[in-house]
Structures are given as C-alpha cells and as structure tokens.
Amino acid sequence: MKKTLIDLFEESVAKYGDNTFLLEKKTTQFEPTTYKEAHEQALAIGAGLAVMGIEPKERISILAEGCNDWIVSELGLLYAGCISVPLSIKLEEANDLYFRLWHAEVSTIFVSPTQIHKIRSIRERLPQLKTVIIYGDKVKPEQEGEISLAEVMEKGRAWLPEHKEEFLKISEMLAEKCEKSGVPYQIGVSHPCAQESLKRLESIKH
To answer: Given this model, what pLDDT does residue 170 score?
Structure first.
C-alpha cells in the first residue's frame, strides 16, 4: 500500500521522537516542539474531533496563518479520517471563501484569531458548517458551534486512553479502502519529486 502523510509522520516520530519538529516564536524566542510532542497533540485533536461526533470522510478546512497549531490540526484531522479542504488566508469572505466552503460542504473549520471575523460574517449562509474551532485564547467562542482548540484537545486526551487502538485504525482502514477503490483519501507519496524529497530527508541525520 502506498504511504500516506500519517505513515510518514509515524515513521518520523519513531525515528526522531525527541528531536525538534517545529519551531514557533510565541514571545521573544523560538520555542521547539519535538516529534513526540506534536504527535501527542495531533492525536488529541483527532480524538477530540471523534468525541465531538465528527465522522471519517467529513470535510474540514483550516483558515490560519502558518503556525504550529495549523500543522498539528492538519495531522489531527487526517488521523480522524477526515478530508482536508485547503484554503488561503487571502480569500475574501464575501466571494471566494464562502463559495469554497459551501461547494466543498465543509462541516468543520479550524481558524486563527485574525481570521475568525471572516467566518462569523458568512456563517449564517453556511448551514452545513457546524463546528468552528478557534486557535489560541485571544478570541473566545461566542457563537453556537464555536469551541477553542484547547477544549477539543482536552476532550481528546480524556477519551484517548481507552480508545487509542481503535482510533489509530481509522486512517489506516480508510487508506486501504481508498487504494482499492482508486478514490484518494490522503495524499499518497507517489509523485517522483515527493519520492526524491523523502530519500533526501532519510539521508539527513537528525
């Protein structure tokens, strides 16, 4: 079976778990996040989605600037078996953003504090958008269906210990089914450029 992003991430966690995976400048200095830490956060997010009743193959988007939360959210939704619908923060809510969310039937969106106003301004026109997950603590959940990322992760961490084995099977089973049917689920690493990049990464000593 072709490797997925989750397969590659799991392999990296096993090999380089205590090494730095992400760097983010939250105050005056860059703070590191290891592979193991990012793995735990991604699983907590994915499990939190499952606890909230978000089903595999549901469409989820992320509207945020580049940050650690963006990365672990992407991994988390893939662990939960969901489909990632890409967005750009350059999209304006009145036209392109609304159309993409509506046309893709996005049911859940992760959003940063600086982008939340776009979602709130069009939320009434998107009845299928049930859940809005807000990054950080600068903007508090106000509308129905809004929840902080911290609360999603808290739900996931509470649920995961007794359900981890079955949860981890979700993305694996979907990937197998989709490969047999020929319908893509996650990004398979089959493109020659991607394969070459992976070979180079494997040659780097962490």
So the answer is: 85
